[in-house]
Structure formats: structure tokens, C-alpha cells
Amino acid sequence: MAEETYDDVELLVTRKGAIRAGSGDLGIIPGSMGTGSYIVRGLGNASSFQSASHGAGRRMSRNKAKKLFTAEDLAAQTAGVECRKDSGVVDEIPAAYKDIETVIKAQTDLVEVVAHLKQVVCVKG
């Protein structure tokens, strides 16, 4: 929670599922365990309360992902990434998440991309 002023009104802003994207603020917008993440700089867009998404976001529920995908699917979608590839984490399969590139493109009025990080290792409990 942060005290912020918009249109000369003092507000308490809580960001759930969002990062602060005030002018110059650095943030990270992660993709899935098989895709890259982005380092971004906020543009201070007041119409979004100086906020941006905090990640790719789910395309489907964990239960649906467990029913639709196998450990083999997970291994294929995380090829080249050092991570668990067993049925215990199949709910984290990249296909269960929105496309990070689309998510970033939808926020060009909120953030600018500073760097695109390539996923190399993913630690999932």
C-alpha cells in the first residue's frame, strides 16, 4: 500500500497483480517457466494509477492445465531451460500462461522495455 496523489486527491493505492510503473520506476514482468521476462521502466501513466501488470497471467486454471498436459508436454515446452519437468509441476506449463510478448505489447503506454531476459533456470518447489 502506498500513499499517492491523483488529480490533487490523496489516495491509498494497493496493487494486487500489478507493479508500480511511475515515471522512471524499474520493474520486472515475468513470463512463464519456459519463456523470458522483461525489465521495464514505468512511464507514469496516471490513467492506470501508474501501474502495469506483474506478469503474463494465467490463461487457464491449475486444475485444467493438469488435466490437459503431461510431463512430456512440459519437457517439450521448457526445452533448453534447466527446471523440473515432472508431473508435480505440470500446472506451471508455459501453455497455461498468456503470451508474454502480447502482454508487453498491450502495455506500451504504461512501460518501456529496458531488457528482455532469456530463461535459463527455473526453480519451482
From TrEMBL:
Keywords: GTP-binding, Ligase, Manganese, Metal-binding, Nucleotide-binding, RNA repair. Its EC number is 6.5.1.8. Its cofactor is Mn(2+). It catalyses: a 3'-end 3'-phospho-ribonucleotide-RNA + a 5'-end dephospho-ribonucleoside-RNA + GTP = a ribonucleotidyl-ribonucleotide-RNA + GMP + diphosphate. It is an enzyme of class 6 (ligase). One of its GO terms (biological process) is RNA processing. The active site is at H54 (gmp-histidine intermediate). GO terms for molecular function: DNA ligase activity; GTP binding; manganese ion binding; RNA ligase (GTP) activity. InterPro entries: RtcB, RtcB-like, RtcB-like_sf. GMP binds at P30, G31, S32, M33, S37, H54, G55, A56, G57, K124. This is 3'-phosphate/5'-hydroxy nucleic acid ligase. It comes from Amycolatopsis azurea DSM 43854.
